[in-house]
Amino acid sequence: MAAVYLTGYGDDDKLQYVTNAPVPTPGPDEVLIRVTAAGVNNTDINTRIGWYAREITTGSTDTAGAADEQTAASGWNGDIDFPRIQGADACGRIVAVGTNVDPARIGERVLVATLQDAYSDTEMGCITWGSEKDGGFAQYAVAHGSETFAVECDWTDVELASLPCAYSTAEGMLHRVGLGAERVLISGASGGVGSAAVQLAKRRGAEVIAVASTSKAEAVRGLGADEVIDRSADLLERFGDNSFDVIVDVVAG
């Protein structure tokens, strides 16, 4: 099958396109997915440059901070075995299942959870698809059956493949604070996680004040934001103290 291998930590010259990668075989609790679309996320870049290593302190856009040596913490949950197939987001159809998975699932159109919690027996508890496990940058991929979810909607595969990483991150933050019909400030609202947070917060009945650049304000309003503030504004001067029930900071996490 065709796939993109990550052969080591570094720049994009560490990515290798191949056409002879073996089609993976699903384990007892896994499913085999024919990938129809895959998204690209910052986490794919971060993993490639070794940004998750404890020694790396620069931003992910600075490839000069790439780990020159494999360290004990360069992936989400430790070192990565190379070659690795990245791709934290994917949409596809199940074409085969393991012995413990209902064969009726064959043919399902599915999304794959970025965090494959069902595999995790580590202290950190973070097994990420496309990092600790091969992901979606291939024609076929395997994932745990309980971490793949049937989807029935009129969205295209490309649209669906943009969802898992960004929307699960945003959902995790909103769920953790128990956001309801409150006033929320969302930074970085035009990015993947920020735009997801805007939409999900509105579904919870929140009043959403979004922070974004002026050039992207109209698009953010189109997502449902009640008000968009330019990112250069002095928010304390603009709103004063204790103006929000919740602040979603997608920059600092």
Short synopsis of the structure:
With 253 residues, this protein is an alpha/beta fold. Helix content is 19%, strand content 23%. The strands form three sheets. A five-stranded antiparallel β-sheet has the order 7-3-5-6-8. A four-stranded parallel β-sheet has the order 11-10-9-12. Strands 2-1-4 form a three-stranded antiparallel β-sheet, with no helix packed on it.
Features of the shown structure:
253 residues; alpha/beta; Quinone Oxidoreductase, Chain A, domain 1; Rossmann fold; 5-stranded antiparallel beta sheet; 6 helices; 23% strand
Can you describe this structure?
By secondary structure, the protein is α/β, with parallel strands linked by helices. It has helices at residues 42-48, 157-160, 164-177, 192-203, 217-222, 235-239, and strands at 3-6, 15-18, 30-39, 84-85, 89-97, 109-112, 140-144, 148-150, 183-186, 207-212, 227-230, 246-248. Helix 4 links the parallel strand 9 (183-186) and strand 10 (207-212). It is globular.
Write the layout of secondary structure elements.
Elements: E1 3-6, E2 15-18, E3 30-39, H1 42-48, E4 84-85, E5 89-97, E6 109-112, E7 140-144, E8 148-150, H2 157-160, H3 164-177, E9 183-186, H4 192-203, E10 207-212, H5 217-222, E11 227-230, H6 235-239, E12 246-248
Parallel strand pairs: 9-10, 9-12, 10-11
Antiparallel strand pairs: 1-2, 1-4, 3-5, 3-7, 5-6, 6-8
Q: Which class of secondary structure composition applies to the elements?
A: alpha/beta
Shape: globular
Beta fraction of the residues? 15-25%
Q: What is the CATH first-level class name of the largest domain?
A: Alpha Beta
Amount of helix = 10-25%
Question: How are strands sequenced across the largest beta sheet?
Answer: 7-3-5-6-8
Question: What's the story with the biggest beta sheet?
Answer: 5 strands, antiparallel
CATH topology of the largest domain: Quinone Oxidoreductase, Chain A, domain 1
Query: Can you tell me the CATH architecture of the largest domain?
Result: Alpha-Beta Complex
Radius of gyration: 20 Å
Average of the residue pLDDT scores: 89
Per DSSP, the total helix count is: 6
